[in-house]
Amino acid sequence: MASGTLTSRILGLFRDIALGALFDRTVTDAWTAAFRIPNLFRRLLGEGSLSVSFIPVFMEEKAGDPSGLRAKNVANGVYSVLLIGMGILTLLGVVFVEPLFRLLLSDLYVLSAEKWELTLRMGRIMFGFTFFVTMYAFYMGLLNALGSFGLPALAPALLNVSMLIFTFMPPEWFQGAGDGLAWGVLVGGMLQAGLLFLGLRSRGGLPRWLGLGWVPKR
């Protein structure tokens, strides 16, 4: 687990060096501003908060029911709520990214037309990361509850790997300067969640979506 965390931090250092060397200040400032909301979700959910709140309930239900059915029902219910809730939140974020950033960023920042437009474009691309990092956090909680810690610790390194790869892609492949950074974040989030999805499936612990008609039982 420690090696996975160390690998992620080393890759993060290389990522920051590459960003500073290959992009001008306008692009890096826009990326930093646009990444504020996805990074907030990563800190709130991806760094353990969701796991800390979910694991005790899951383990309590698992201990109280040897068949594991109650624990599975809890996991399925939380999974369904997260899929629907985060799906809606992500769509709203993409649609209303401009007023959202106007609330978060200073008036002086908005006056810089080039940087502002780049921030909005990056923000729309990266907002999907909030969905995937939430799924990653939930999958991490389930894997931890099943006694697996190495894979969740290694998964964050994929974000930095993805960003490094997209950083070195030819700029003409993208709509504008710096867009590759935003796509690197989105793809990195998909890879993180995807790795843990496969890990859960291989252990038979993958939850299932209960459908739009599901309501919690009282």
UniProtKB/TrEMBL annotation:
It is found in: Cell membrane. It is a multi-pass membrane protein. Its main location: membrane. One of its GO terms (cellular component) is plasma membrane. GO terms for molecular function: lipid-linked peptidoglycan transporter activity. InterPro entries: Lipid_II_flippase_MurJ/MviN, MurJ. The chain crosses the membrane at residues 78-105, 125-142, 149-169, 181-200. Involved in peptidoglycan biosynthesis. Transports lipid-linked peptidoglycan precursors from the inner to the outer leaflet of the cytoplasmic membrane. This is Murein biosynthesis integral membrane protein MurJ. It comes from Bdellovibrio bacteriovorus.
